[in-house]
Amino acid sequence: MLIRTRRAHRRHSATASGVVRTTVLSLTPSAFQKEMSLNTKQRLATAKKLSLPPIVQPQDKPGTSHHKFSAAAPEQRSFQPCPPEVVFQNYSPGEVCEVPLVLRNRDKVPHLVKVTLKSSPYFQLVGPNDVCRKVPPGLYTTVRILFTPGQRKDYFHQLLCTTENEEFIVPIWAIGGRAILDFPDQLDFSTCPVKYTTQKTLLVHNVGNRPACYELSTQSPFSVTPAMGTLDVGDAVEVAVEFRPLKTGDHCRSLVVHYDTGEDTHTSLHARAVDAHIGLDRNTVTLEKTYITMSNSATVLIHNRSDITARFQWKAVDTEEQEEQLRQRQYHRIYQQQRHKLYSFLKEREVDITCRERLALLNHTFQSEVSKIRGDPMLLDDDIFSLVPKEGEIMPKCSAEISVFFTPQAAQVYERTVYCDVSGRENRLPLLLMGEGLGPRVHFHFEELNIGEVFVRVTHRYEAYLINKGPIEAPFKLIPPTTAMGSCFTFLPQEGIVAPEKLQAIRVSFCPTIRGEFEEQFYFHVAESPKPVIFTVRGSVIGPTFHFDVPALHFGDIAFGFPHTLKCCLFNTSLTPMGFSLYIPGDGLGVPSVSSTTQIGKPSSQLWRKEVRVLRRLQEFTINPHSGTVRALGSQDIKVTLCPNTVGDYNLELVLDVEDVGRKVFALPLTARYQHLSCTCLSLLGHPAPAHCLAAAPKEKCIVPTLRVLNPVVELGHCCLKVLYDEKVTLVNDSDFPGCYCLLPQEHKEEAAAWYSSLAPSGIIEAHSSVQIPITLQAQLLGQCSITAKLAVFGRPGSPLEIRLECVGQGPVVYVHPREINFGSIPVLEDCSKTLHLANQCKIPAAFQVEMAVERSCWRIEPSKGVVPPSSEVSVAVIANLNDTVKFQEKLKVFIENNPVTIIPLQAVGIGTTVVSDKPLVPKLDLKSCFSFSRCFYHFQLTNRGRRTQRLYWSTEGFRTFRRSARAPAPAGPPGKGAPPMPRPGSPVFKLCPAQVDLRPGQTVDMVLEGCSSTVQEVKERLLCHAVVGKETAKKQILQTDVICNFICPAVQMSPRAIAFRVEKKPSDVLTLQYQPLTLKNTSSLPFSVVLDLEQPFLVCNVNRKPLPANCKPLPVGVGKELHLCICFNPAYKNSLISWVVKKVLRVSFMEHPHVEKIPLRGEVCFPNLHLPTKAVDFGCIINDTEQELKMEMTNCSPLPVNYHWSFLTDSQVNTIRFIPSPPKFKPRSLNKRRVFLRRYSRTESVEEPIETPETTQDSAQEDSAQEDSALEDSVLEDSALENSDEQDSAQEDHAQEDAALEDAALEDSAQEDSDQEDSAQEDSDQEPADAQHSLESEGLSSTPGASQRPLRVRGLSWFSEMEHPKLGMQEVFDVRPLWGELQPGESEQVTFTFFGHANVVARVRALCHVQGGPSYEVVLTGEASCPSYQLDLQEIDWGLQRFNKVLKAEVTLRNTGVMEFTFVVPNCSTGTAAKPLPGVPVVVPTTVSSTSHCLWPSVRVPLHLARS
Description:
Elements lengths: L9 E5 L5 E5 L4 H8 L3 H6 L9 E4 L20 E4 L3 E4 L7 E9 L5 E7 L5 E3 L5 E5 L4 E8 L7 E8 L3 E10 L10 E8 L4 E8 L6 E6 L4 E4 L2 E4 L4 E8 L5 E11 L4 E11 L3 E3 L3 E3 L3 E2 L4 E9 L5 E6 L4 H30 L6 H20 L9 E4 L2 E4 L3 E9 L6 E10 L6 E10 L3 E3 L3 E8 L4 E9 L5 E6 L9 E4 L2 E4 L4 E8 L5 E11 L6 E10 L3 E3 L4 E7 L4 E9 L5 E6 L12 H4 L21 E4 L2 E4 L4 E8 L6 E10 L3 E14 L3 H7 L5 H5 L11 E3 L3 E8 L3 E10 L5 E5 L10 E4 L4 E4 L3 E11 L3 E11 L7 E10 L3 E4 L3 E7 L4 E9 L5 E7 L6 E4 L2 E4 L4 E8 L6 E10 L5 E10 L3 E3 L6 E8 L4 E9 L5 E7 L33 E4 L2 E4 L4 E8 ...
Parallel strand pairs: 5-12, 13-20, 22-30, 23-30, 32-39, 41-48, 50-57, 59-66, 68-75, 77-84, 86-94
Antiparallel strand pairs: 1-2, 3-12, 4-6, 6-10, 7-9, 7-11, 8-10, 11-12, 14-18, 15-17, 15-19, 16-18, 19-20, 21-24, 24-28, 25-27, 25-29, 26-28, 29-30, 31-33, 33-37, 34-36, 34-38, 35-37, 38-39, 40-42, 42-46, 43-45, 43-47, 44-46, 47-48, 49-51, 51-55, 52-54, 52-56, 53-55, 56-57, 58-60, 60-64, 61-63, ...
Helix pairs in contact: 3-4
């Protein structure tokens, strides 16, 4: 059955695919409540609208049908169900409901219909199910559906109806409990101001039968709060509906209530928005002309002539659409800024994922900026015009004054239009603001400065004055000049502020760098001034003079690659410093020329090779310094260095440029000729030979020294691979010139058979000398090796010199023995080692590696690889560890570096067993001692380390074989939680689990050896293990072990066996913790752990008297060891001064055994205590100015002497003494001496105040005498008397019960009180005050009568309003005797309580009996004193004009307004009766009340009937 929650107000129809289609219907709350209140029958009666069910699946007509053709169209339905859906509603769980379903044949031919209802525990059909029924045309068949609900919830089912043409479904719904919120159908707001929030609050109740979980929604301009919530059945909640329109006109919306059960109700909301009478007093504000940086103001008024509180805001735009556009522009600006930051960050970090925190920070910053913009109210923010306040509220019928401030920032006319967005007006109110700004007035005291002739590079200073003739400050700033001469001027300050009517001095500095005449104009910008201030300067600049100390520089002949330096001096003959720059125009523009010293430090330089070409001419001259400054009348030394790398004569010039004077001011000639090496060397540098070299050579020649190698062929003999061998080559220079050489790096080194290198590959060889060049050779390949090394000479044309290096490469020689290893028969799973020797017979180390030929071998090598030192031997251990009892044969491979592989055969046979234990098991397993009644366990693991599966069988020698058990033994639990199972007679004490197991190779099984004995004995048993290995059929014994265990019982010696504490608390004593030692000694042969269980007020402490923690672990006690403890007794455990006794038991439990030891504990604490028979003394109500005594017996029930004294509790909130008004004229009546009196008989209210001094009392009485007279006249209320009469009855019953309880408590047996002494002490401690004063002082309380509801006249109260009540203390109302005393143990004494009945006093006081060193006992004393008082509701009866013989009747009510009962008599001179009164004489009924039962009780009314004829 399909069960789902049904939406009550949705109509469901099934499509052809079987999908349920839902149509939502809108219902008002009242319609929804009415529909949900219907029961099943009423809901069936309202189902008048018939609808056709959807066809689930079309059916073909069967061939057996007699009617081949139907009158109904194919798209029409043959049957129409009524009702179209079956609904059960407002049902009770367990109650059977029935609904009939009528299926009418709408066709003109009969049809068969089959009704099918799937099995369901809740729905069933009356009659047979799944049966075909034939229905004639136009007739119907009835199907009855029964519903038996289990709970009050929603149910859903389907009824399938099948005909010859189609199948259709009739849904069955069961609607459970529904929540119904009584919203109104319509809510009208009437006329409301626009842009103003109007709210209406609805008190909504849940009148349904289930808790409501709802959501409320509506559309703008309406809103509702809360938007969602829950409401229990019968509860109510306030729902606020607000209407805030932004446009005028009529507004209609719906308030939708969405229930969690799927239903929706719609409440119609109606309102009309209009403009309120709110406006500005004017539309334009023109402000006076104002200097910039100054301010001017005006005012404008906003008049609120409406009845609402209007809130206004000043905006910069007219509409909210324009305001939203401004906000969007800010969004775009923030977005662009954050986008730029993000792109910059990603570009810097190159999209590093580790910077996610920085990206998150940027995103958070962006979201924060967007939130600020979104929350910005977009108020007016203008630098020129500002309005204060920008926003605020205007009360109804009031006006708001707005201040308009004008602060111009430039000298121009300003116009702004601002808008006032105010509540109650749809459109914003425009306000035009106009104003004009004025700028400052400044000028120089002279407009032109002529400075005459000045030297270049010399600083000249002048001063000018800028004058401000305006009333405001004039900020000025120099506009930077754009000319070269103008940049030589400096003005200080360049910017500043000239105060009003003041002047500013400006210092002018001029340092010219250009010669010639000039005229410059400088512009000063003045803030907010339309034109700048102009300052003109004119004059002429002249330059410096200089000369060199030599006419020219002649270098002469220079050798190739050797630098030569000449010096000269430059003199400055002028009075100003001169900046200069030197250069040679004909020199090369490439890299500096290379000298021999530099070349030898670069052995890998390409200049050593003949094929190098230079793209640009080298720079051969070096000038130091090439630029600088020569001070006035000073000089500068200059060095010129030439390092020639080209052929030819040098006819150049050293050109001088003077800074700020000109270029090429002077040229110094340079000449030189260099000794060339040969014309061939020029091609080495990439330049063609000059023509004069080809024609004729100069006198001095450039000679390249002839260098030769003494040993061009070097033989090193046999060389081991990868080993360095050192040799030296001798180089000889037979010429008169030094030479520069270099051993070139080896080319194609990766393919060479040998490698060579040198620690000193380059250098300079002097004339007629020799030098040895070190060469290192390393062979890389086996066999004959021959390589050529090249030696280059700097400047030498042609190929470099060649040196031939020859050697023979060879590897290490290692001898391996023995050539075969046979281990023989060895135990399995044990290491058996043989040695393999590796002997190195050469002088180089030999790297080796030894490994088995197959993987997962039973042999291993240690070490498996290493290095054999030269001429040494290394032993390698070959270790066999067999894992089966078969023959093993394998091969060992020995790898020697640069040698062939050596094969060593290995052989071994395994014996023994491959099943091993992780713990010692054989030949004997001694479990030592074990406690009886406890399981003894020994856990171990068996592992099959062999290659074949083994089946193990365990047995006990002398007993039958263990039964196979797959169940693991239960773990040993704590003792006392069920005894372990004891072995049966004739069975072994120890057993193994599992007794039979199959072990696959490498498998491990957990084995548990378990033993248990109920008697004390020593057990010895032998366990045997047999195995079937692999496919073998025979079993063989592989393990045998003897198990020994001694079962014992724990024994503990306790001293003492019982512990008792007794503490007598005297008044001067202080309660401290009491300790007594306790010793537990282990007298058994096994250690055990004890758990001590003890309840408060006792504690178990260690030997240092520190309490053991609550979650303390079990205490271990070793064999023969003693556990020293202390038992602590806390006599102050109970926070009371009542004597008490406690008995507890210390339980000593053993973790290893169920035995429990017990030690009795007793603690007694004695205090000085008393026994009082009652806690309350009630004197009742007595006659004014009388007194009464009551006595009570007090007994010392403690073993200590008791010193006591009495006092009254001085708490104004607990003790009350007040007075009630009472007339002096009444007839006193003898009172019955009762223990119960009524305490309250009127509604007179009292106000408690502290005691006042006589002076303050007299002053207050004189000041308030007039108020007291009027208050006393209105103190008696007619209505309060009726209420107090009911209170009187209940008060009589309550006090009667209270007195009965007090009398019963006084008659309790003393023995019973001793047994419950502990409980009574707790009650006494609850009544004991925290801070009791040991005195008989108390505070008086005054009372002020409450005001009556209507003025009445009271008889006999005129003198009472003028009487002053005395200020009484508690000792003047109550007394206790004796006030103090001493009682010995068991002694008793009478205590007398006295009540003094002052006039009209009502007192309630708590008396405390303080026991020294004991508790304080509280006794409540109550009593009243009063006199009779009464009142008539009428003072005059006026019947007016009546008929002569008519009997007139009236009723006068006599009310007792006091707290005493009394009798009354009405004098009646008439002898008539109420039925027949005498003419003219009134008759009063009743005339008297004399019996006690008919007394007029306080606050009781008696009607008096008057009759007159």
